[in-house]
User: What shape does this take?
Amino acid sequence: MAHIAGLRVFPVKGLDGEAVDRASLRSGGTLAGDRAFALVDEGETVNAKDFPGLHEFRTDYDPERETLAVAGPDGDRREFDLGEELDAAGDWFAARLDADLSLARADPDSGFVDRPSMGPSVVSTATLEAVASWFDALDVEGVRRRLRANVEVGGVPAFWEDRFVGDDAPAFEVGGVRFEGVTPCNRCVVPSRDPETGESLADFRRTFLRERERSFPEWADWDAFDHYYAVMILARATDPGGEALAVGDDVTVRGAPETP
Assistant: This one.
């Protein structure tokens, strides 16, 4: 049966994700704690698209203590209290990236997600497995880290999430919260890079395009897609009001028959 197989938030935009068992929804429908902080350059948030060196940093955030443990590519390890040492943490990253960066805290109602009104990103476990099968050098966990989805759904076919975008698309419900697909996620250069080193995988985009076209599901509405270099969707929660999602929650399709 369809169910929530995993939930992930990314406390600092562009850096490591954290698996959580439960996540409440912000008023805009994104997961609380997701992209709660970001590195900022001249007023604009940045991520690994802008600074590939961010792939080489390891982070671990404790939301109860508001501490960020960090390890840089130079081997330096620190722990910052982001309630009191936000500027010091920003300076630490800036020195290692040789850039004039600061670390900023987001509005808790929105976070630094790229499209806060569109809700969390959603992908199926089977989709991650399918993408991993296209590349000899990748496994499922590697693809999971490259695609950086918030909500992972198990017990469904590969590319199950594609059916929720487009005209007359159904919705799905989790824990009494209805989600409607908004748009497929067109991908950038980040999924082509090793999440540990930033090294690019040869022919990643070309292979992805070929295999995505070959395996594009019959239940998907092609008119909702700009191209085949897209995987996972953004799904808007209707009337979120502090509800929470939890690993193991059942997922039910609403408005159309379920996929095979």
